[in-house]
Amino acid sequence: MNNLHAILIPMWVFYFLFLMIDARPELAGFSISHMVAKMEAQSPGVPEVIRVVHHQDLNKRILVALVVSSTLLGAILLFLLCVWIYRRRTSKLDDGECRKDLGSVSMIDYKLLEAATDNFSKSNVLDEGSTGHVYKARFDDKMLAAVKRIEYGGLDAEREFENEVNWLCKIRHQNVIKLLGHCIRDETRFLVYEMMQNGSLESQLHGPSHGSALTWHLRMKIAVDIARGLEYLHEHRSPPVVHRDLKSSNILLDSDFNAKLSDFGLTVNLGAQNKNIKLSGTLGYVAPEYLLDGKLTDKSDVYAFGVVLLELLTGKKPVEKMGPTQSQSLVSWAIPQLSDRSKLPKVVDPVIRDTMDLKHLYQVAAVAVLCVQSEPSYRPLVTDVLHSLIPLVPVELGGSLRITEPLHLKEPSSTR
């Protein structure tokens, strides 16, 4: 578009100049009549016929230049108009219509979403995020789903929306959220996901219940589920995929506390032109090397996984406020504690302190410490992490640990 402007501006000047000369010759010191008079004064011996022919030839040249420039200008304007109309049609759709170029995910009519959420009633709000609300939706066949409503957030938000739809078209895994459909209405975007009845891991750990529903074994199962999802992205996709925004709020739990990765708006292929990728992520989860110089690898996800594992162990947030202007990261606080076995039991979330296995605690703490190492090469592969954690999960929950005591999925509420 900038190149067209470079061509268009001088042509406008050329066109305007000749219009002024033709319309008001007295304003132009080099009008046609003046040029002829000057020629007569300077060449009194030139036959009149030569001067007339020269005059006519000059007029023809000017006329040809005007016709050519006007035609070219009209063609450029027509082209720009076509481009503008095309962009308008592809960026803004009619009411209720969904874009048809976003992969193979179903397009859902806006009126259907409106009816399923009772006109996006406040009573159906499941969660509130920085980009919009998530609503519970009940469709005609009694199927429950979650509708994420994304208000206009500029070009970055639009790119993230399209990126998420395109990725979730390609990814099919038991530990990755399933996208059921999408819709666009004016500047608002909608994503329809499978229903995850227990919300996000963040809301379970840091919400009103303070993690009381999450037993030690359930927390280990959730950690294994997350690792399985990451292993699929890192090891079973070609090229490997980096999530880039792994955090407890992007880990969703179904009715059986099966964990699934969500929010793929920032996901990229490993090996893509990463130097052109905008630095993104969430404070407390971003790996140091990515934060400092934008170096992105699969170990960036491993670091974020380590932070989530620390959340599961301690029940603390990734960044805790220490005062009006001070805060402390969970990693900087936990590393010294986890490295001292005598201090380790004291930093564990009180909710699980009485039910955990001390030997298993040491193993999980060691895995967490390795995952959050500042040097990426010291961090383990997610496959190694998975193999370390699976033996800590009961068979009934998808692991390999066999226990003789009855497995209780929920414990009585307790305060931290």
List the topology elements.
Layout: H1 2-23, H2 32-42, H3 48-91, H4 110-116, E1 125-128, E2 132-138, E3 144-150, H5 154-170, E4 179-185, E5 188-194, H6 201-206, H7 216-235, E6 241-242, E7 251-253, E8 259-261, E9 268-269, H8 288-293, H9 298-314, E10 319-321, E11 327-329, H10 330-338, H11 344-347, H12 358-371, H13 382-389
Antiparallel strand pairs: 1-2, 2-3, 3-5, 4-5, 6-9, 7-8, 10-11
Helix pairs in contact: 1-3, 2-3, 7-9, 7-13, 9-12
Brief overview:
The chain is α+β, with helices and mostly antiparallel strands and 416 residues long.
Could you characterize the architecture of this molecule?
- This protein has 416 residues and is of the alpha+beta class.
- It folds into 3 domains: 2-91, no CATH class; 110-194, Phosphorylase Kinase, domain 1; 207-397, Transferase(Phosphotransferase) domain 1 (Transferase(Phosphotransferase), domain 1), CATH 1.10.510.10.
- The chain is built from 13 helices and 11 strands.
- The protein has helices at 2-23, 32-42, 48-91, 110-116, 154-170, 201-206, 216-235, 288-293, 298-314, 330-338, 344-347, 358-371, 382-389, and strands at residues 125-128, 132-138, 144-150, 179-185, 188-194, 241-242, 251-253, 259-261, 268-269, 319-321, 327-329.
- The strands form 4 sheets. The chain has a 5-stranded antiparallel β-sheet with strand order 1-2-3-5-4, with helices on both faces. The chain has a two-stranded antiparallel sheet with strand order 6-9. It has a two-stranded antiparallel ribbon with strand order 7-8.
- Strand 2 (132-138) and strand 3 (144-150) form a beta hairpin.
- The longest helix has 44 residues, at 48-91.
- It starts with a helix and ends in a 27-residue tail after the last helix.
- Residues 2-9, 12-30, 90-103 and 404-416 have low confidence and may be disordered.
- Keywords: ATP-binding, Kinase, Membrane, Nucleotide-binding, Serine/threonine-protein kinase, Transferase, Transmembrane, Transmembrane helix.
- Residues 120-390 form the Protein kinase domain.
- InterPro entries: Kinase-like_dom_sf, Prot_kinase_dom, Ser-Thr/Tyr_kinase_cat_dom, Ser/Thr_kinase_AS.
- GO terms for molecular function: ATP binding; protein serine/threonine kinase activity.
- It comes from Cucurbita moschata.
